Amino acid sequence: MLVLESLLADFTQELKDIHKIADLLNLKAKYIGKQGPLADVMKNLKDATPEEKRTIGVRANELKQAIESLVGHKMQELELQEINAGLAISKIDVSLTDSVIEKGLQAAGYHPVTIVQQEIEDIFISMGFEVLDGPHIEDEYHNFEALNIPASHPARDMQDTFWFADKKHLLRTHTSTIQIRGMKERKPPFRFVGPGKVFRCERTDASHEMVFHQLEGMMVGEDVSVGNLIYFMKTLLSEIFKRDVEVRLRPGFFPFVEPGFELDIKCLICAGKGCSVCKQVGWVELLPCGLVHPNVLKAGGIDPEKHSGFAFGLGLDRLVMMKYGIDDIRYLHAGDLRFNSQFKSF
Length: 346
Ligand code: DAH
What we know:
- The chain starts with a helix and ends in a 6-residue tail after the last helix.
- The chain is an alpha+beta fold.
- It contains 12 helices and 9 strands.
- The chain has 2 domains: 2-90; 112-340, Bira Bifunctional Protein, Domain 2 (BirA Bifunctional Protein, domain 2, 2-Layer Sandwich).
- The structure holds 3,4-dihydroxyphenylalanine.
- 3,4-dihydroxyphenylalanine is lined by residues 174, 176, 216, 254, 257, 260, 288-290, 311-313.
């Protein structure tokens, strides 16, 4: 009986330190399991008198029930705690944006190049253009040869190239590579743009970076002319700047177009007076373009006798600088949140 009477007190004492369901089950087994003290007492009853059997048996049963009931209550308590802990972790706080800002953390936003790129894509999509992608790592053929720049051509030096050790692969120096892949995969008439990063092994300054962004454009069909080219470029620029911008067209040399042009816009940073962005000239080269060279059409599987086309390569970073009045291209790639967070947030 002595053992029995201290049992409940011992159990209650130990129960206080239980905080996990698994521990509770162990404690229950320790006291009222098959190997526990209660089971021992019952086993030893065979030698007791009938009177003892009755009283001890009744008392043992009472204790077992008391312990089971305590375990049951504790179990409910612990299950509730577990559910609440789980809810606390997965709780969705719909007011989080505000509280994040209150705590001085910054909400995420789009990079200005992304904003402008998406705007321009939308403009071209509304004019019936597709948007294509292309690989950053290119081969010599797509970056140079197919674009009418053979191995010994001096034009290869116009673009300082990051070559891979095999001397056959490179980081694309321009998005014109997208022209070749785009032509091969379609039949005229077609029109598409291809935006993306390009890479040049150049010294950096206020208007040069080693990584920058271009948006290539191409339209091929019957009788596509300089007239079409000028129409699309003018529409593009007035949509982008949402105001009148002065433009000028100069002859320009690019092996993949003939004739080739440079389309300049009056510098919007200094209104043509001269600054670091326009290299004191007052004009910014923005849109080199031209009629696609017959050799390039051939490389794309298109018969230059039947079809013609125009192409252009828009410098996105300069455009961003003009649009937002940024006077140094290096801000765009510095990853400084004070700069980046000034643009549209999500
Ligand atoms: N790929 C040229 C460059 O990065 C830019 C360019 C010029 C693209 C004329 C064109 C074009 O499509 O017609 O310097």
